[in-house]
């Protein structure tokens, strides 16, 4: 008598076992993201050419391992003007901006990665003058620290009685010396500031204030507010102090007086009418490239004086010469290339003798974005 090759009872065992293994493996797959410990190089192949770099504190998806490197993918938004179409190697775009370009969590959002000039990218979306791109590469294994699983869990919902995504300022009685309290309900930031960040974590240019922190007008200066559960933008670090910008909403009756901002002046406007804006104070967001010394090719800057070569005003792809003192030059040299900062400066020349590059004299770091 021929015996059956399999029985119904036993045929279910491999399927059940596979289901059990799949359930056990699911948590591991969900945790297959790692946090960059520093600005690690993103390579085309293990030990290959450099494509760009990761940003410290951002989590990235990781996959295969090869020669001590992990495969990962960077994705973000960048200005369309910084790319050109291409069909090389199956990609859609190539980075054309001199000095490379930053990838952001959203248009004008926080930086989540950087790519070099000549890097090939895949296009995954577009919004106005911004384009969303993606590129896979390899990063040295030691450049990552394993991200805690709890970092992938979304924050709890706010209490039902608290309005979501609102901020209030309670000044208290005038007779008390306590500073006003700045609070932020819910998660303390709009969804758009987080949803595009890999892993949903804060990047290095943002932070969350500890409850009850005191905001001072200057390092060791007088207190101006007490901040609770607020998300902030980090603008500058100085010794054991961090300069931050807090964004929120006030009820209209709480605003004593509205401030009318001067019309925004773009780099294109200055280049088109170079004499019109001389002496004008501007607030521009620039991308720092390097500190250089003026020579005869730039007669608008005193020979031998240091100046900062920067891209901008962002997101424009042009360049700017920012005149600085020797002391200020040292502070800029301490920064990393491609760092972005908002500066307040005075226009000294709408262009140089040989190039359509505006010359500005640095005054200070601005407390707001232009």
Q: What would you call the structural class?
A: mainly beta
Mean pLDDT over all positions: 76
Proportion of residues in helical segments: 10-25%
Distance between the termini: 88 Å
Low-confidence stretches: 1-13, 16-31, 147-155, 161-178, 182-204, 257-263
C-alpha Rg (nearest Å): 26 Å
User: Which term fits the overall shape?
Assistant: globular
Order of helices and strands: HEEEEEEEEEEEEEEEEEEEHEEEHEE
Number of domains: 3
Outline the biggest β-sheet: 8 strands, antiparallel
Widest sheet: strand ordering: 6-7-10-11-5-4-1-12
State the total count of DSSP E strands: 24
Beta-strand percentage?
35-45%
- The assembly state of the depicted protein chains is single chain
Tell me the number of helical segments per DSSP (H or I, 4 or more residues long).
3
Overview in brief:
By secondary structure, the protein is mainly beta. It is 10% helix and 39% strand.
Question: How is the secondary structure organized here?
Answer:
Elements: H1 8-30, E1 33-36, E2 41-43, E3 50-54, E4 59-66, E5 69-79, E6 83-85, E7 93-95, E8 101-104, E9 111-115, E10 120-127, E11 130-140, E12 144-146, E13 167-170, E14 181-184, E15 206-208, E16 213-216, E17 223-228, E18 231-238, E19 241-246, H2 267-272, E20 281-293, E21 306-311, E22 319-323, H3 326-333, E23 340-349, E24 359-365
Description:
This protein is mainly beta and 370 residues long. It has helices at 8-30, 267-272, 326-333; strands at residues 33-36, 41-43, 50-54, 59-66, 69-79, 83-85, 93-95, 101-104, 111-115, 120-127, 130-140, 144-146, 167-170, 181-184, 206-208, 213-216, 223-228, 231-238, 241-246, 281-293, 306-311, 319-323, 340-349, 359-365. The strands form 5 sheets. It has an 8-stranded antiparallel sheet, with no helix packed on it. The N and C termini lie far apart (88 Å). The relative contact order is 0.11. Mean pLDDT is 76; it is low at 1-13, 16-31, 147-155, 161-178, 182-204 and 257-263.
């Amino acid at each position: 008598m021929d015996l059956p090759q399999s029985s119904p009872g036993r045929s279910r065992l491999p399927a059940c076992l596979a289901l059990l293994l799949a359930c056990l493996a699911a948590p591991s797959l969900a945790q297959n993201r790692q946090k960059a410990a520093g600005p690690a190089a993103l390579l085309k192949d293990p030990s290959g050419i450099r494509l760009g770099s990761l940003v410290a504190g951002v989590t990235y998806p990781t996959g295969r391992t090869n020669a001590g490197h992990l495969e990962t993918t960077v994705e973000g938004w960048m200005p369309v003007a910084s790319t050109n179409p291409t069909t090389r190697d199956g990609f859609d775009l190539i980075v054309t901006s001199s000095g490379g370009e930053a990838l952001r969590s959203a248009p004008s959002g926080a930086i989540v990665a950087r790519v070099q000039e000549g890097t090939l990218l895949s296009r995954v979306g577009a919004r106005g003058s911004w384009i969303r791109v993606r590129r896979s590469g390899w990063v040295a294994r030691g450049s990552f620290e394993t991200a805690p699983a709890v970092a992938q869990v979304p924050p709890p919902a706010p209490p039902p009685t608290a309005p979501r995504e609102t901020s209030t300022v309670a000044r208290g009685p005038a007779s008390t010396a306590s500073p006003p309290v700045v609070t932020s309900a819910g998660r303390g930031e709009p969804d758009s500031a987080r949803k595009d960040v890999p892993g949903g974590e804060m990047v290095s240019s943002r932070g969350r204030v500890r409850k009850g922190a005191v905001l001072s007008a200057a390092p060791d200066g007088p207190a101006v507010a007490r901040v609770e559960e607020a998300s902030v933008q980090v603008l500058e670090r100085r010794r054991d102090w961090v300069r931050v910008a807090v964004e929120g909403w006030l009820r209209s009756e709480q605003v004593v007086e509205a401030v009318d901002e001067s019309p925004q002046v773009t780099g294109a406007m200055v280049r088109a009418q170079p004499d019109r804006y001389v002496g004008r104070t501007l607030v521009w967001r620039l991308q720092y490239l390097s500190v250089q010394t003026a020579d005869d090719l730039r007669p608008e800057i005193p020979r031998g004086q240091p100046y900062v070569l920067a891209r901008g005003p962002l997101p424009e792809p042009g360049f700017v010469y920012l005149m600085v003192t020797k002391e200020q030059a040292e502070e800029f040299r301490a920064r990393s290339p491609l760092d972005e900062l908002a500066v307040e400066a005075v226009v000294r020349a709408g262009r140089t003798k040989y190039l359509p590059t505006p010359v500005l004299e640095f005054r200070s770091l601005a407390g707001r974005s232009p």
